[in-house]
Specification:
76% helix, elongated, mainly alpha
Length: 147
């Protein structure tokens, strides 16, 4: 009787510890990554006109660069990311890296002072193309077009 009670308590503790391990190591980092994707979407939708017209501020440029770096760091926090990305239909590691490269390019082009095109139409066109590319790679909405 005492042995079965001890093993029941031990099994309960083991289940709790295993559940917490999975929660903290896997599920919370995945939710955190999804939150960053949401923040990126919100930032781009909120500032769409300034970004696409290459009329953004230096603060906006820094915020976009920060979102790109957070995206990579959140991805790094998920062990066995390739497996979970496949199972949960999340962007691949390659797509995240490529998207962050595009975010860096956009952050440079969206501010007139740092743009390589200095007010030419090429800058906004390149921004629009990169935003569409990021949207496709990450599976997030970055504009108000229809589905």
């Amino acid at each position: 009787m005492k042995d079965s009670m001890f093993f029941a308590i031990l099994a309960g503790v083991a289940v709790f510890v295993t559940g917490q391990f999975i929660l903290k190591l896997v599920l919370e980092p995945i939710v955190s990554l999804k939150e960053i994707l949401g923040e990126l979407s919100a930032f781009c939708l909120r500032n769409r006109a300034k970004i696409t017209n290459a009329n953004a501020t230096l603060e906006m440029q820094q915020e976009l660069k920060c979102l790109g770096s957070k995206l990579i760091s959140k991805r790094q926090a998920i062990p066995f990311y390739g497996v979970f990305a496949f199972l949960l239909r999340m962007p691949s590691e390659k797509d995240i890296i490529e998207s962050c490269r595009s975010l860096n390019l956009i952050s440079t082009e969206m501010v007139k002072e740092t743009s390589r095109h200095q007010g030419n139409l090429e800058g906004p066109v390149q921004i629009l193309l990169e935003l569409q590319k990021i949207s496709n790679l990450l599976g997030v909405r970055l504009d108000y077009s229809e589905l």
